[in-house]
Amino acid sequence: MTQAEVLRALDARAAGQWGLVTTAQAKLDGVQGVQLLRLERSGALESVGHGVYRLAASPSPEHLKIKVAWLRLDPGIPVRDRRTDGPRSGVVSHTSACAVHGLGGLPGDPVELTVSSRRTTRDETVVLHRAATDAEDVTVVDGLPVTTVPRTVVDLLAIGADAARTGVFVAEAAARGLVRVDDLAPRVVGFADAYGLPAGVSGAELLDFLCERAGRPVRARKAGRPALKPGGAAVRDAGPGASSGPERKRPTIWEVAKRAGVSHQTVSRFLKNDSGMKPATRERIERAVAELDYRPNLMARSMRTQQSHRITVVLPELSGFVPIPLLRGASAAAHEAGYMTDVVGLEGGESRRARSVLSLLETRQADGVLSLVSLGDLGDLAGGRGAGQWPVVVLGEYDDKLQSRGRLADGRPAEEILRHLADQGHRRFLHVAGSQDWASARNRRAVYVEAVERLGLESYGVVDGDWSVRSGYEAARDLPAHSGVTAVLAANDYVALGVLRGFQDRGMRVPEEMSVFGWDDEEFTRYFSPSISTVHINKEEVGRQAMLSLLALLRGEPEPKSEVTDLFHLVPRGSSGPAPR
């Protein structure tokens, strides 16, 4: 591979994982260690950890040490394919989770990760904790799987972390509406003794003690209730009382498990939409969830006025395809308005996704939600509150499998391609289609067939492809030498790459003997030889406009009326030209 080819391969790998790539990932693309060393010496790569490099052209990501340590847990697996429940999996936890959540000011060294199976590390800057993590104890922040705020508090107390520093974390999380002391109390009551508090102290009193040690009390004590201190002594406080009667506690996963007569791990599997679960078990858990109303209650009015300054972007699930340009545009608009963005994949159907979205909003983990997929009717789950009252915008440009639909699936640019090539003298065409399971592939094919007839051109036919390089290569390889075809419309850039390479292997010159046109304007199309003609889709602006609509909703302003007028435009490059004479 040439140096340029190596850089292209590394750039593709680093996309979606903060500009970072591991030696193991590079090896999968045929890039050898000596080539990485040369690129490092030339300044194109920067070594940021054993076996991990940062592309010099990429900005240094926030929490670099944490991301490097997490990548090294399973260095051969791309971020988009990583799981949190595999034998080599792990999540960011303890003080590192505090740092990623931006809470507590706890020291970020060493990096702390929690793994599910026994593992060791020779890296003195990394600490591995072994423990199980349920799905509800993990969230995704900037692409990193991180323990939730409540689980992080439990982890800190379990290792006897400094009381004052832990108290700062709890107080800041409570102030931002990311946790409620009364909800967290049952999970931490067992740690009171470790901090030298008297027998019988409640979890709420332990949390009060931690926050008071930090000088950040989260609520006033009731009149006459003693302030706790280690060793069993107490300091009497005759100050004004706090609020009256206790609030109803929200149900926990353990209560759901008890009601359904199963383990909490089984409930966790249900929440993950485990398809292998017995129907009878699933029915019992569904009934328990409904009876207990298992989701966070609405926060108090005063808590609603606080902001997390975070916006969550919802995908149906974190799969191999992530619409990076659209997310880039949405994130840029959010950042300009002072918000951080978190991208989460929510498995299951509309109602499960909607319940998760309501939980994010009610617990103030997010000020607003931009969903790329349908959430159904939020009003049905909102306890009488109308769906339109929630700070949620549903873009709706993708289905549950992240297959494009609506504007992004418009096939009309296929006619523009035909007109452009016809103006250059082409009359006989071939179309290599994408998978017909996708609306975008069906639309491009239909427009191609109709436009050929309407423009008085000729079609040799349509080859059924599957979006892959291989399908394009085979179509070019199998095209008869005397077909009369002088131009090929490929369903996407990967198919176009296969078509181009197939003709080159046959000894045909592109574009002198055959023109090739792709679709999507993938980055590699600019660097292949010849560069590939394509259709650019302004997905960044689609994401930006959707985020601007959500920001207007958050501010109580009218929705912007602007539309993406130049959603598609042709980008002729070196792979297309005049028809051969």
Outline the structure in words.
There is one protein chain. By secondary structure, this protein is an alpha/beta fold. The chain has 20 helices and 20 strands. The chain has helices at 3-14, 23-28, 33-42, 64-73, 94-101, 149-158, 163-175, 181-188, 203-213, 253-260, 264-271, 279-292, 301-304, 324-336, 350-362, 413-423, 439-454, 469-478, 493-505, 539-555; strands at 20-22, 45-49, 52-55, 90-92, 111-115, 126-130, 138-141, 144-147, 227-228, 234-235, 310-315, 340-345, 368-371, 392-394, 428-433, 458-464, 487-490, 515-517, 534-537, 568-571. The strands form seven sheets. It has a four-stranded parallel sheet with strand order 12-11-13-14, sandwiched between helices. A hairpin with a 2-residue loop joins strand 2 and strand 3 (52-55). Helix 6 packs antiparallel against helix 7 (163-175) and helix 18 (469-478) runs parallel beside helix 19. The model is unreliable at 220-225, 232-248, 296-305 and 382-387 (pLDDT under 50).
Give a brief outline of the structure.
The protein is of the alpha/beta class and 581 residues long. 37% of the residues lie in helices and 14% in strands.
Let me know the largest β-sheet: 4 strands, parallel
Q: Output the strand order for the largest sheet.
A: 12-11-13-14
Mean pLDDT: 82
Task: Tell me the span between the first and last alpha carbons.
Answer: 35 Å
Number of DSSP helical runs? 20
Q: What's the alpha carbon Rg, rounded to whole Å?
A: 28 Å
Percent helix: 25-40%
Number of strands: 20
**Shape field:** elongated
- What percent of residues are in strands? 5-15%
Class by alpha and beta content: alpha/beta
